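Re: beginner question about structure tokens

> Can someone show what the tokenized structure looks like for a real chain? I only ever see the sequence side.

Sure, here's an example I had lying around. Input first:
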Amino acid sequence: MSLDTTQKHLFNIIGEFKSSETEVRYSEKYNSQIRNRLIFTCIFTSIAYFLGIIANTYVLESSTSVRIMFLLRLLCLILGFASAAAAWKKNLSPYLYRTMISYMTMVGVSESVEAVYLFNSSQGVVVPTAPIIVLMYYLFISIKFTVSFVPSIAMTIMYSVTLLFFTESPLPNTITIILFFSLANLYGCYHVITFNRVRRSEFYAVIEQQRLNCSLKKEINKRKDAENKLIKLSTIDDLTGIFNRRHFLELFERERKISVRYKHPLSLLIIDADHFKRVNDTYGHDTGDIVLKTLTKQIEKSIRDTDILARFGGEEFIVLLPETDLKMAVSSAERICRIVEESPISFSGGTLNITVSIGASVINDKYNSTEEIIKGADLALYKAKESGRNRVSSIEEI
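And the corresponding structure tokens:
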């Protein structure tokens, strides 16, 4: 996987995130996975290294040197298990990193002591395992660059100094081993840095995708809210919060077609606030708005949930009553008149006694289109006003 050039600025020279917050998130994401790998690696490598004492018993001539190597390998085994325990009990913390470095550095000390015995023995030129161990540090314990780099460099220095000053290793052989160490460190550093960048690049791609998804979701919700507001603006009357005239006519036409098709009754009421102009002229438009809002609530309480209420214009309201004949519509209208009359409207200047006049019509052979039914209710309303207001008239009285 190649790194996107746009992501290169995210990483420092050792392949970790420049942002400490992002680095912490990365550690938390892979915390369990890394710890499990560390537990296995520490236990396996410490046991394998301790078993190297078997080879020491055959290679080393002195029993004293074998005992010393046994103690050193045993100490490495203990530190290895301590590192595994730290990985099991704790998160990826500085304590765990220090424990790992101590374990790996102790292996370096043990290898350096072993070099003294090996290169001063009669075995001649030998190929040490130390460079391989260094390479394994980088390959299998690449949780953090410093955790692999510090003990690897420490082992390289200790082993090289041991060969140069404390053994009889031939100079060409010593130089060759130092070159092995150098290559192991160079390749190991390259591996860890590349691994860090690739792994973190994948992690960053995931969180960036999540961020984009979150932004997209917010944008979708924002657009939905905007659409809902537009729908509300196109269907709801701002002042009263009920349907406006245009949307009501759409609903009315749909209900009329259902009524005609299934031969179900359908009635209509047009309600007008009596002397509403006088209220505006006397008390102001703010009081007039209070009257309209209060009338809306009073009418809503007087009709069924299945009935459709809308503001038809000015002080006029209109109610569509599905599955309702004219007699039932008149009864409903009379109930509205009574409730409005018996419910004075309070405002800052006191109370107002408001009444309404209502015209009722029903779909029939004479009034069967939307316009005709509304016209019939309007004529009935005019009749109610002519007859003294605060009353109900139907198309039967026209």
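Each token stands for a local structural state, so reading them left to right follows the chain. The two ends are 86 Å apart (CA to CA).
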